[in-house]
Amino acid sequence: MPKVKTRFVCAACGYVSAKWLGKCPGCGEWNTLEEEVEAPAAPAARSPSPLFRPQPLSAIRAEKFSRFSSGIAELDNVLGGGVVPASLVLIGGDPGMGKSTLLTQVAGFCARERKVLYVSAEESAYQVKLRCDRLGISEDFSLLCENDADEIAALLRTEGYGLAVVDSVQAVYTPRLSSASGSVGQIRECANVLTRAAKASGTAVFLVGHVTKEGAIAGPKVLEHIMDTVLYFEGEATQNFKILRAVKNRFGSTNEVGLLEMTEQGIAGADPARLLLSENRGKSAGAVATPAMEGSRCMMVELQALTVPTVFGLPRRMSLGLDHNKLALLLAVLEKRGGVKLSDSDVYLNVMGGIRVNEPSFDLAALFAVVSAAKNIAVPKETAVFGEVGLTGEIRAVSLPEKRIKECVSLGFERVVLPKSNLKSLAPYKNKIELIPVSHLYAALKTVFGE
Ligand SMILES: Nc1ncnc2c1ncn2[C@@H]1O[C@H](COP(=O)(O)OP(=O)(O)OP(=O)(O)O)[C@@H](O)[C@H]1O
Ligand SMILES: [Mg+2]
Q1: Residue 51: pLDDT above 80?
Q2: Spacing, Cα 105 to ligand 2 middle (Å)
Q3: Residue 89: which of 21, 2, 167 has the closest Cα?
């Protein structure tokens, strides 16, 4: 192999250096020099080669790409209806989230109909085999425990795989660069090599990506630009319930989310109603159910609140799953507009199931939970609540009320407290469920807790 020359280029100002430097002499920035393969300079002026001819759009036959199922309906849904051949999908997520588990299952399922390659750069063949045995995967697929990206790309080009999994993009490297695997230059170059091979061979490639402490996919942002689809695997590591979210999708909407559950038999589609709603709701004070939108999906979420007398001077406000500034703001509105004093109580609020929300429709449900806890009056089990609360105490309309009501109806709720301004579009549901429209916080609280 001819020796490949590399150079170090500053990502901020473009300064070129033959060796790595901590500080860029060009712009003075630290840690911006990245290694890249030096391309031979292009000849100044020449006529285009006959191979590179642009063609008119009308001459291109757009065959409808035939998607295939990954075997996990929720994943298909997030991808926009199945796996697209010759596409690159990046799945990012915290350690232990179940990325390898998910993709092992996908590899097993797809191996029934097409040639599948599973590249494990992080785990040994023994570990992958053990996982397959645990998950009960009996289908045969090819396993490669190597991390040379150029070799993987060559395999993809010659072997005609229908699907390939590379676990993970941070662990593969190309020997053409001297930097360590996982560095920005390496990740970019490996992703490029794999992209070209996938497009040339028609193989759908799933890449696993690690995330940084801040939660972004580790490595350069260009990695996300190269990919066709970028998915994030979210959820608390200790909770079984996980959310698969598309942040970029060239073949479908990014509004779709997949709800998954980690079980002993592997990852499967989850039933959020069973996981998120407790049986005790309606019996004990402080619990309220509210329909929440996750992308274009609606799921019922339970909020629980607890109030206890403050021991020290300053009352504590703590929330899990909801921004604590938001909680402080809502409690201020409750005191001023709802007539409930909590200045001598600590308030704790929790969104059950490790779900994190930032939807305004939670406002009213959060306040219902807090008042229920403070007054020790349980909100009836068949009652759901949603609506945004303004600083003046008015209840404002939220998006997609039809979907929320539909979910309430399907889960057997009998009563919904909702913003009056959302009522217009809900005529078809009038005889299926009792709708209680409210326009002010005080009136809303009165419907359940009385004066
Ligand atoms: N025997 C088991 N029974 C049930 N669940 C298990 C078992 N072994 C592992 N798990 C679950 O599988 C998860 C690990 O899955 P997996 O290895 O796919 O994660 P990952 O996202 O690939 O992690 P990493 O980033 O470290 O590679 C663990 O969180 C654990 O909950
Ligand atoms: Mg893994």
Answers
A1: no
A2: 13
A3: 167
